[in-house]
């Protein structure tokens, strides 16, 4: 009987290790598949042409594989969405942790969670059918597909994530610190700006980096609302194509393995993977280096 | 002089509070606008025949039957793969692994990195591994496996949190009675932590239900004119069907896209409601 239990325990422990191993295998598989195809891609297209070329036309004749238009498009979405998500996320977090009463928090938090839970395809629909017409009413020269509309939607979508990451950090600041400042006659604003924000600055920075990383990887909103024209422009009212937008657009048609199109999707995907990976590691590094201990 | 300064500081504080409140109000208005827009456009197209019809070239005849069935198939299989794997991994990390060892540290770092990988990259993984290498084709099975890997990190992390909340006194009490580790897990640890595990898992699964990008990457079709019958059938899901309709130039198709969104949102909300009900039920039992 005892032996039987011991044997069973042994088998269970080993199978749980196997389960845990799946996540390692996933990472390895991502790296192997991305690298394999990308390596093949760079055999055909010189890496400098890819990284510095200003024309992206992988399916036209003559073909051209300069990734800059996609990169600039992606970074514009990241930049303009941050203008919404970072300050508003920070503001929401300050309000929730410093100003809101318990009852107000109980109402507002589920609303933010709901905003975070809405699929990005729905934000894409909202951007195209609501935000874009609104922008075009104010600025009639705006193209139907444009960076601004998609950025606003991406910003609204990432706002709750920024807010909740920062709020968690702010709630972890002990009340004794606040009460000390109140006892000296500080207003809530002074406590928030001079004590809470400085003492949670690493969490705030890390949340900002994560939000930008999310915006870079966001796909459906930009595929719907930002357009599919890989033009090198810095005008947010024009149509562009992002890296993710290109990948989706290519996959809508049948692309067969081994073709240059297939490899191109993987090359762009590898770039996307690295950009987000580096940003996520930076976010973690910021947190790790400046751990605040009370 | 001093009084003036105090008044100014109070005024500043009030202004600051006003700014913060308007930020919150902005978020709430955005949510309401979004829901309003979807319902305004889509509600009149919602009908029983919309839910039971196949997609069509004609907007007034098009329905979401095949996409709805595809979504249900895909999500059921995703749950089947992702929850046992995720909870198992969390159990290993919390109950078995030596927290100080390099292997555990690598595992945890790896999982938190995987959580930050964009969904579309999982789609490329699925395309290369499940569709091509394992030759599952562009099937429900490939889609479900891809989505399972996508939400695995979320399930692991939320299950770990739930497992951490089990008081060590309960575990030690069990061990003191000579109960084995696995019996302690199934008899004490899991019953205590299941509300947390369920809540986290359902939220993760509802995220999978709204994903379109990874499934487009593995080649799920935009148009499916039949009901999927087995996991190896080709398929489409609600978000892809919605994307397909939204990206057509004709306004009528955007109307039915909104109707599709309503169906998707109702499904997601009811999943969240189930999460809340389950959590309350188990919580009452534990208290």
Overall description:
The complex is a heterodimer of chains A (294) and B (287). Chain A is 77% helix and 1% strand. Chain A is built from 12 helices and 2 strands, in the order ααββαααααααααα. Chain A has helices at 2-44, 47-52, 68-99, 102-117, 120-138, 147-171, 175-183, 188-199, 201-217, 220-225, 243-252, 260-289; strands spanning 56-57, 64-65. The longest helix of chain A is centred in the N-terminal third of the chain and has 43 residues, at 2-44. The model of chain A has no long low-confidence stretch (mean pLDDT 90). Chain B is mainly alpha-helical and 287 residues long. Chain B folds into 2 domains: 2-45; 50-286, MetI-like (MetI-like fold, Orthogonal Bundle). Helix content of chain B is 77%, strand content 0%. Chain B has helices spanning 2-42, 48-52, 65-96, 102-115, 119-133, 140-164, 168-176, 181-210, 213-217, 238-246, 251-286. In chain B, helix 3 (65-96) runs antiparallel to helix 8 and helix 5 (119-133) packs across helix 6 (140-164). The longest helix of chain B has 41 residues, at 2-42. The radius of gyration of chain B is 24 Å and the shape is globular. Classes of the chains: A mainly alpha (294), B mainly alpha (287). The interface between A and B is large, with 80 and 83 residues.
Class from secondary-structure proportions of chain B: mainly alpha
Largest sheet of chain B: none
The first-to-last residue Cα distance of chain A is 50 Å
Average pLDDT, all residues of chain B? 88
**What name does CATH use for the topology of the largest domain in chain A?**
MetI-like fold
- Which class do the helix and strand fractions of chain A yield? mainly alpha
Radius of gyration of chain A: 23 Å
**Helix content class of chain B:** over 70%
């Amino acid at each position: 009987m005892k032996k039987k239990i011991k044997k069973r325990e042994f088998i269970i422990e080993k199978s749980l290790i196997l389960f845990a191993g799946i996540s390692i295998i996933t990472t390895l598989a991502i790296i192997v598949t991305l690298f394999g195809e990308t390596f093949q891609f760079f055999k055909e297209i010189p890496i400098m042409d890819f990284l510095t070329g200003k024309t992206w036309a992988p399916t036209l004749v003559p073909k051209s594989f300069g990734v800059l238009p996609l990169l600039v498009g992606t970074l514009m979405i990241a930049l303009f969405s941050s203008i919404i998500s970072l300050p508003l996320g920070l503001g929401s977090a300050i309000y929730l942790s410093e100003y809101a009463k318990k009852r107000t928090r109980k109402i507002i938090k589920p609303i933010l969670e709901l905003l975070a839970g809405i699929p990005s395809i729905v934000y894409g629909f909202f951007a195209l059918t609501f935000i874009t017409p609104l922008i075009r009413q104010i600025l009639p020269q705006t193209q139907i597909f444009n960076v601004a509309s998609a950025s606003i939607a991406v910003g609204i979508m990432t706002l709750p994530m920024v807010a909740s990451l920062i709020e968690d950090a702010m709630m972890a600041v002990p009340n004794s610190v606040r009460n000390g400042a109140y006892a000296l006659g500080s207003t809530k604003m002074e406590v928030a700006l001079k004590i809470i924000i400085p003492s949670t600055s690493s969490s705030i920075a890390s949340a900002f980096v994560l939000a930008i990383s999310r915006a870079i990887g966001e796909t459906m909103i930009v595929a719907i609302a930002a357009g599919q024209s890989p033009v090198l422009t810095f005008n947010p009212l024009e149509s562009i194509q992002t890296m993710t937008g290109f990948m989706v657009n290519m996959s809508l048609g049948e692309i067969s393995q081994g073709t240059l199109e297939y490899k191109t999707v993987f090359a762009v995907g590898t770039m996307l993977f690295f950009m987000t990976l580096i940003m996520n590691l930076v976010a973690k590094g910021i947190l790790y280096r400046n751990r605040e201990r009370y | 002089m001093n009084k003036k300064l105090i008044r100014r500081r109070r005024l500043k504080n009030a202004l600051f509070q006003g700014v913060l409140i308007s930020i919150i109000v902005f978020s709430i208005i955005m949510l309401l606008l979004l829901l309003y827009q979807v319902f305004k456009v889509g509600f009149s197209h919602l009908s029983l025949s919309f839910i039971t019809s196949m997609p069509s070239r004609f907007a007034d005849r098009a329905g979401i039957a095949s996409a709805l069935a595809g979504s249900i198939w895909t999500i059921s299989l995703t749950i089947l793969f992702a929850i046992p794997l995720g909870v198992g991994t969390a159990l290993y990390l919390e109950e078995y692994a030596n927290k100080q060892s390099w292997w555990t540290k690598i595992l945890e770092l790896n999982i938190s990195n995987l959580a930050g990988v964009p969904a579309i990259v999982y789609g490329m993984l699925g395309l290369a591994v499940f569709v091509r290498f394992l030759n599952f084709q562009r099937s429900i099975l490939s889609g479900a496996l891809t989505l399972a890997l996508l939400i695995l990190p979320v399930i692991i992390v939320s299950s770990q949190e739930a497992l951490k909340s089990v008081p060590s006194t309960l575990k030690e009490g069990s061990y003191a009675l000579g109960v084995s580790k696995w019996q302690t897990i199934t008899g004490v640890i899991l019953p205590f932590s299941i509300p947390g595990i369920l809540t986290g898992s359902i939220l993760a699964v509802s995220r999978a239900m709204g994903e379109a990008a990874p499934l487009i990457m593995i080649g799920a079709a935009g148009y499916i004119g039949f009901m999927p019958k087995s996991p190896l059938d080709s398929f489409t899901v609600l978000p892809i069907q919605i994307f397909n309709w939204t990206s057509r130039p004709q306004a009528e198709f955007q109307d039915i896209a909104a109707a599709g969104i309503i169906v998707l949102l109702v499904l997601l909300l009811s999943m969240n409601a189930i999460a809340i009900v389950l959590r309350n039920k188990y919580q009452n039992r534990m208290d």
